TrEMBL record:
This is Transcriptional regulator, TetR family. Residues 86-164 form the Transcriptional regulator TetR C-terminal Firmicutes type domain. It comes from Priestia endophytica DSM 13796. Keywords: Repressor. Signal peptide: none annotated. PANTHER family: ACREF/ENVCD OPERON REPRESSOR-RELATED (PTHR43479), TETR-FAMILY TRANSCRIPTIONAL REGULATOR (PTHR43479:SF7).
Length: 183
């Protein structure tokens, strides 16, 4: 199967899964029902997704694909501030992110962020710690935003991020330049 056909197939399956999640618990949805709704055979499903975590993989594929489409449409915004562009992407897809959270799929959301934040850029071991720190910290902010039902705009969330970094920098500067020397 050609790459475009595989992408189309996975998107159809992911869309079927998401549609089913609108009316059913994630854990009750099985592969047969997804395949029937998508018009795809089980053999084809397993050939392209395998057996382990296949539903999660569909959702991760869908969110990553949608981010790539969003990033292409908003290329200048992504170049200017990828983090803020991601906030806008998430906000535009808040219904899906809320549905994932409500179905206990926090780890699935986190796995999406693991792929999106570094953007496939190669890095060495020492940089991997820093990237993980920011990726999971950023995910934590997004997770809280989801839990608060997206009650703030992307601009407000971005301000929280800036305020947090500013406070952290102030605290670091205060600790590195104590008023009185240690004895």
């Amino acid at each position: 199967m050609k790459k475009n056909q595989t992408v189309f197939l996975k998107l159809c399956l992911a869309d079927a899964l998401i549609k089913l999640m609108e009316s059913q618990d994630y854990d009750t949805i099985n592969v047969n029902v997804i395949c029937n709704l998508a018009g795809v055979g089980r053999t084809t499903f397993y050939r392209h997704l395998g057996r382990k975590n296949s539903k999660d993989e569909l959702l991760i594929f869908k969110l990553n694909y949608e981010w790539e489409c969003y990033a292409q449409k908003h290329e200048e915004d992504v170049k200017k501030d990828k983090g803020f562009a991601m906030l806008n992407y998430i906000y535009e897809n808040r219904r899906l992110f809320t549905m994932l959270n409500n179905n206990g799929l926090v780890v699935t959301i986190m796995r999406v962020f693991e792929k999106l934040i570094p953007a496939g850029e190669p890095y060495d071991k020492s940089h991997s710690y820093l990237i993980s720190f920011f990726s999971y910290g950023y995910f934590g902010i997004i997770y809280q935003w989801i839990k608060y039902n997206f009650d703030e705009t992307p601009e407000q969330v971005q301000k929280h991020i800036f305020d947090t970094f500013s406070l952290g920098m102030k605290n670091q500067n205060a600790n590195s330049n104590p008023a009185s020397p240690d004895c």
